[in-house]
Specification:
The protein is an alpha/beta fold. 34% of the residues lie in helices and 23% in strands. The protein is globular, with a radius of gyration of 19 Å.
Length: 307
């Protein structure tokens, strides 16, 4: 049996402070070290240089087209990540790609970029968060021919270093509370702690206890119907570690995110597998739970329970 041809992927970027078009494309295509070293996000060439290429890049798909709102940036990303075509307009990729990586984390613009692709039946990976409200999330799904076209996650849900080991779980005892802290804004980064926590603990009814917004820091406290408590905090600061803390009856354990490459690679692999299987690794019900918590944290008027 002949292997399936590689999927053709398009990339749309950039948003402020987000270098995913560089890193995601390199994970599929490999990269030119000299050009990548000029990337305005120095952490990206730093962690790419610790990997072996082509051994560590993902097979089965290639980024073949890129568009950003700045032609010079598009050309630089294309040279750095060996992308053959710089599109003049993002809609020019329709009919030329099998799936789309919407590598922008300004969710308020997701619908404008994704609509034409979803209406054409093209699978789309929406950078986190997928949306900032349930209204916006539902608009995205209404554009799709099939719900399985939409994939969106924080890659941290695939980060093994954030999970409790069996030994750690035994040490801290029955879990009472799980909390997450992330730098940057609630709107762009809260998904980095909400998505992993929901992925780790599984589905359940959650009620907002309180949301506090003070001097750029947002903290949302919630209660699950299981009795578990949760706290999500975005510090508003430009830098800092992303961490989860598990509190049990006998102790606590902090887990710190450290490996961007492996997390991104696992998330991209899940997307590609879903495209092949016509099945999303992030179904609507999960994205609904993520977006509802994001919406709860944006202000008291948004706080409510979800059923």
């Amino acid at each position: 049996m002949n292997p399936s041809p590689p999927l053709r992927l398009g990339v749309i970027g950039l948003s402020e402070g987000n270098g995913h078009p560089y890193s995601w494309s390199a994970i599929f295509n490999g990269y030119d070290p000299d050009v990548m070293n000029e990337c305005p996000f120095p952490a990206i060439p730093a962690y790419l240089s610790k990997r072996r290429f082509p051994e560590d890049q993902l097979a089965g798909a290639q980024v073949t087209q890129i568009w950003t709102q700045d032609v010079a940036s598009s050309r630089h990303i294309a040279r750095a990540a060996r992308i053959p075509t710089v599109a003049r307009d993002f809609r020019d990729m329709l009919g030329e790609v099998d799936a789309l990586l919407l590598a922008r984390d300004d969710a308020e613009h997701h619908l404008g970029f994704a609509r034409a692709f979803l209406e054409a039946g093209v699978p789309v990976y929406l950078d986190k968060p997928p949306a900032l409200s349930m209204v916006a999330l539902d608009e995205l799904f209404e554009c799709a021919i099939e719900p399985a076209q939409i994939f969106s996650c924080s890659a941290l849900r695939y980060a093994d270093e954030l999970r409790l080991s069996a030994e750690e779980a035994s040490m801290i005892g029955p879990l009472k509370c799980i909390s997450g802290v992330t730098p940057n804004s609630w709107e762009r980064y809260a998904a980095h702690i909400i998505d992993p926590i929901l992925s780790f603990i599984g589905p359940g009814r959650v009620t907002a206890d309180r949301s506090v917004i003070e001097r750029g820091r947002v903290t949302l406290c919630v209660d699950w119907n299981s009795g578990l408590k949760g706290q999500f905090s975005a510090t508003g600061l430009a830098s800092g570690k992303i961490s989860l803390t598990y509190e049990g009856e006998c102790g606590s354990q902090e887990k710190i995110f450290v490996d961007s490459f492996l997390a991104f690679r696992a998330a991209l692999q899940s997307f590609v597998q879903g495209v092949r299987q016509r099945k999303s690794g992030t179904p609507y019900d999960h994205l609904k739970s993520v977006v509802e918590l994001i919406e709860m944290g944006r202000g008291p008027s948004a706080m409510r329970s979800n059923d």
